[in-house]
Amino acid sequence: MNKRVTLEMPEEMHQLIVEYASEAGAEPDDYLRQMIQRELENLQDLAAADEAVKRIRSGEDKVVSSEEFWRGLDD
Questions:
Q1: Of 11, 18, 27, 58, which sits 20 to 30 A from 73 (CA to CA)?
Q2: What SS3 class is residue 75?
Q3: What does pTM read for this prediction?
Q4: What's the pLDDT at 75?
């Protein structure tokens, strides 16, 4: 189920969104939805990277070189 969100923004920001949406061949609502989706995906990626760094720092995971990674896989 979709939810409606209303937000206020400066006129200059709205105008930029309209311009960029037009350049992309999209309606402003669709363009904003895509922008929000990309940002949410970026935030998820950052959270996953932070968790990976924590596991490496704690010793739970380790970093290996590409040579180590590929060693033995060619056999």
A1: 58
A2: coil
A3: 0.74
A4: 61
